[in-house]
């Protein structure tokens, strides 16, 4: 397929997945913010989240204060923030529009309808219903796009690059969601407060639809290392890093071309380290350094995928 | 106009009696509750928006997309009328292709004195670069969108032959899908000729004009991009044909031919259905500032490495200054009697035509020779004195830029409007495909001027569309 078309379907899927994950991250925050805490604590948490999402600088350029309403608006509805949920849905739609002929009609319609509908969620309306309704809606629309993708698209390159976008983005986002939690714990005033800790970890599990999975898999109390294991290493947990990387590796084999051998090798090496890794070893130097290095590897793969497949050849 | 001074109406004729081919529909319309129809109108609107059947509007904020209004009352054509029309269309397009081949080769028609040399050779749309270029199959206009109107007591006239990059066929298909979805019962009670196989015919036509020696040609559709007003149609047709929708930046030219850049390296391209105007196709050959084109494309085309559909330089044949000669061309190239009427046309470069026109501006339609889209024209009977005087000055400044025609009493078709159902003026654009043979799907796109009394059907000026039914005999 055309390099440019592959680029558009890849980014279409990435932006849709990113919108969903941003909704998930904000949902954790919203749940946590229902716990009693000081204004200073709230500011610290938002600062950490904006930093991990790579948006702290953009936020500070626009706003002087960090409070829940302003940050939530910035991350949900701010059209000038290219990483807000609304902007992600717009970018997904713009990319899909450019290659709508490559998508099935159902997929294009699902993504277009999402964009048309998001404009109905006025911030003022959310003041009454609370943001959860919006987060649920974003997740639902993302589920719908993904379901239509899997249910209607021919298993050709367009499908493979769409899925590649989904899993690269999800791997990236899962790492960031874990990292947000790490920052929230670091320096918390009540590090041994079991109740707060429980709510924070369970909110995180809820945010990645893993609370029930955790209970089923471990049948035991929630501990940080098990949560990390579930989200990093479980091969059967669809949002885990291991699962995403297995998909990425398989998809890279499906689209392989004459330039992509090194990219496949790196993806395979990373995938194997997750398949055979143990959580104790991953966390030996602490969770955060591991998350950092894993995020580096995902960024490197994203860069290499662009160079190998998505940038046009000219000779 | 009909005998009683009314316009010819597709449903009610000139005398107000329901024409036989509309009887079943009229019974259905009378038996159907207006609330059901209103619900369907709302549903159609929501569906079109969801599917994204929109057109971008130039001059409004970037990315503005509008729906083309869709009217639920179909324009119905009986089998006998379509037979007559299709024979005329086929004759006309064969003639225009012969004319294009001739003027870029031996110029017999000019030598014979049928058309003055300067009318062709000094025409801005004539491309001297195309002189002596042999195009595959000798076909220049592979896709033609001929605008037909009906006037007087119901005679058909050709208003324009669109031989460059005619658009609108996607609306023809989507209108049909919409009607089938909203009113399946109507399709059970009428024998309506299908139109949805148009993309199949188009792909087949494009494959027949591949360069010599290519047995399994790769066909692509070249679009200016997603901000073009007809982008929906480009994407739609590429998808329906299963071919790549490419932009100029996806293509490059080597001495071997034209290639597209894919995820697996380069791939040869044999036929380009281009939806970009001549001027923008190749910055090395035409407009140097074009960001949409492919450098070197014209050289590859001249060398026979790739087919462009439509060919470069077809604009001279659908130019309004050449239009008056088409009936003569039919006689010259085919030795046949023209089957379709031309609208009588005054060429204002001729002093006697200019004098007549200036005396009768209030009755005539005056058009720019190179204009399109309903812009740059004067509809005398619908204009104020001041507008007419302003236009008079423009004509006097450059008379050779204008032609004038009598204001046709365009036929009407019942249409849903705010106050209920009322007659509105319509035209018809059938799409004629020319490859190894001439083919079309029955009917075409019917456009309707939604403003009362308006004769301008263009979507950019408040026009809508209707499903067009050709009834099978």
Radius of gyration of chain B: 23 Å
Distance between the termini of chain A: 16 Å
Largest sheet of chain A: none
Would you identify the regions of chain A where 5 or more consecutive residues have pLDDT less than 50? none
Largest interface, counted by CB within 8 Å of the partner chain's CB: A-B, 30 and 27 residues
Tally of strands of chain B? 23
**Rg over CA atoms of chain A:** 19 Å
- Widest β-sheet, arrangement of strands of chain B: 3-23-22-19-18
How would the global form of chain B be characterised? globular
Share of helix of chain B, binned: 25-40%
Instruction: Please identify the structural class of chain B as seen in this structure.
Output: alpha+beta
Estimate the global geometry of chain A from the Cα principal axes. Answer: globular
Number of strands of chain A: 0
Low-confidence stretches of chain B: 59-63
Discrete helix count of chain A: 16
Mean pLDDT of chain A: 89
* SSE topology string of chain A: HHHHHHHHHHHHHHHH
Query: N- to C-terminal separation of chain B?
Result: 28 Å
Describe the structure.
The complex is a heterodimer of chains A (315) and B (473). Chain A is 75% helix and 0% strand. Chain A is an all-alpha fold. In chain A, helix 1 runs parallel beside helix 9 (157-185). Chain A is globular, with a radius of gyration of 19 Å. The two termini of chain A are 16 Å apart. In chain B, the strands form six sheets. A five-stranded mixed beta sheet of chain B has the order 3-23-22-19-18. Chain B has a five-stranded mixed beta sheet with strand order 13-5-4-20-21. Chain B has a four-stranded parallel beta sheet with strand order 7-6-11-12, covered by helices on one side. Chain B is globular and about 65 Å long. The relative contact order of chain B is 0.17. Chain A binds chain B through residues 1-6, 94, 97-102, 105, 108-109, 112-113, 116, 157, 161, 255, 257-258, 309-310, 312-315, and chain B through 49-52, 225-226, 234-239, 244-247, 249-250, 252, 254, 260-266.
